[in-house]
Amino acid sequence: MSNKKNPHWGTTLDTFLTDEGIREAAKAEAVTRVVAWQLTQEMERQGMTKAVLAERMHTSRAQVDRILKAKGNITIETLQRAAALVGRELRLELV
Asked: Looking at the domain assignment, is residue 54 inside a domain?
């Protein structure tokens, strides 16, 4: 057993992420994943396939996969287009 004290023991997740310098990146990743999940849920509700969304977006099915898996650099514009094509609206706000 190590006698070293863990510097992050007892800290909050926000404190840990801030200390590591990755808080904003982690928040952006989390928001993107939530929006991707919401898009997936809406597609399932409507019975829409990835192929249909890709056709409506004038893009490839592989790109739709990246959007729905929140992989890569997904722009707000891309998320807005996808949301509109499933009949939803993407809202961003400063709080």
From this structure: yes
What would the pLDDT profile of 59-76 be if each residue is shown by its tens digit? 999 999 999 999 888 999
**DSSP 8-state code for residue 6:** P
Judging by beta carbons within 10 Å of its beta carbon (0-12, 13-18, 19+), is residue 53 exposed, middle or buried?
A: buried
Strand ranges in the chain using DSSP code E only, listed in sequence order: none
How far apart (Å, rounded) are the C-alpha atoms in residues 58 and 78? 11
The overall pTM is greater than 0.70: yes
Nearest residue to 82 (alpha-carbon basis) of 29, 50, 39, 42? 39
CATH number at residue 66: 1.10.260
Closest residue by Cα to residue 93 from 17, 36, 38, 31:
31
